[in-house]
Every structure is written in C-alpha cells, then in structure tokens.
Amino acid sequence: MNETPKPTPPMRAAILPVTPLQQNCSLIWCTKTMKAALVDPGGDLDKLKAGVEKAGVTLEKILITHGHLDHCGQAGMLADELGLPIEGPHQDDLFWIEKLDGDGARYGMEARSFTPTRWLEHGDTVTVGELTLDVIHCPGHTPGHVVFFHEPSRFAIVGDVLFQGSIGRTDFPMGNHQDLIDAITQRLWPLGDDVMFIPGHGPTSTFGQERKTNAFVSDYALS
Predict the structure, then answer these.
(1) Interval 189-205 mean pLDDT
(2) 93 in Cβ contact with 121 (< 8 Å)
(3) Transmembrane region positions (predicted)?
C-alpha cells in the first residue's frame, strides 16, 4: 500500500548564525515561487550569500526585527550590493540604526547605517513570494522591535523579544521591561501555544513551552 506523499509546506526556513554574537539570521522562502528573504542579516555576508545559493532560492528582500548591530549592521551593505529593499523595523528604532557606524567601530564589527525602504507598523503585512507574514510590534528590548508571524505555518521570527528560557535585555537605551512583558503576554501568547519560533540567539522553541517553563514569562512566573 503506497503512502500518500506529504504536501510541501508553503514556507521553509533555515538558520544562519552570524557575527561573533551568534545571531540567528533566518532565511525564509516560499516553496511555490522559491522567492526568499533574509531576516536580520547582521554580518558575515559571504556566509549568508552562500546559504542563499545552497538553498537554491532567489532573494527578493531583507526584513529587520530591530536596530541592534548584530541584527542589521550589514543589512544596508547587502541591500546596496544586491539591489534589495529593506522592510522594518518600526520607526522607533531609527536612533539605533543611525548609530550603527559608531557601534560597529566600538565592537570591532563592520557596520553601516541605512534607511529602510519601508518602516513597519503593528498590523502591517510583508510578503515573500506568495507568503504573507503579519507584523507585530513588540517593544521593550528596543522601542521599535517587530516580530514576523506566518499564521498558516504556525511560525514566528521573534528577534530578541523571547528566547528559549529567557527574554530580551531591557537595560539598553529606551528599553522597558514592562513593555516587553506586555508585548510577549498580550501580543505573542494569543497567537497560540503551538507556534514555533526562531529567536535572535539560541535554539528554537514554542510559545507553549515558554508559557510552561520560562522563568520570566511563564504563566506560573507571572501569576
């Protein structure tokens, strides 16, 4: 008896860690069109271009979760080289992006400020091929941080908002701990316990797992 082959998922993702901070740059693509986006290409551009080539996809844009060096320090350089638009983050992170050149020199990393093709607001959508991802504004780690959510795949890219077992730092300029807790519990948890997410650093997890075990934002920790 022949098994029915599983249908190809509409979206695939690969994690490409970059920079000395091992930031999870994500390559996401539409399996129907093989059009792709890099989310948070903070550095190591040769590695990222090799990853795109290996996946056999066509890069059509760059998406940014927030303005920190390890997430977007080389996004403008890649966009200029390949002629790609940059979408994100929210405009409240403009001050972070404007100081990328100085931050790069301070941390010994090549970085350059840029102007996004499109700033993103809560409730916006972005497209990759025929995929549509929801934009969720989640301030706290930075004021302009956004999350990208593909509802049909039950999948999110959350940047430095949430990690397996932890949450983003809030001791940076314009960081706010309560804003971060509110963003996680009021904007991410309602998406569903089954949502798998790629964080900005470290291993993947699900919202349900973090609601059970995360020492900062589990239901028990906040009760």
Answers:
(1) 98
(2) no
(3) none
Amino acid at 164: Q
At residue 2 the predicted structure's pLDDT band, cuts being 50, 70 and 90, is low
- Return the SS3 of 17: strand
- The arrangement of secondary structure in 11-213, i.e. its CATH architecture, is 4-Layer Sandwich (3.60)
- Decide if pLDDT at 66 tops 90: yes
Cα–Cα distance for residue pair 77/42, rounded to 1 Å: 10
Q: Average model confidence (pLDDT) for the chain?
A: 96
Task: Yes or no: say if 121 and 112 are a contact pair by the CB < 8 Å rule.
Answer: no
Residues ≥6 apart with Cβ < 8 Å to 210: 162, 164, 165, 217, 218
Where are the chain's structural domains? 11-213
Which pLDDT score is estimated for 5? Answer: 73
Helix axes 45-55, 75-82, angle to 10 degrees: 50
DSSP character at residue 116: -
The verdict on pTM exceeding 0.85 is: yes
Q: Give whole-number Cα distances, 185 to 118, 140, 204, 222, in Å.
A: 27, 12, 18, 10
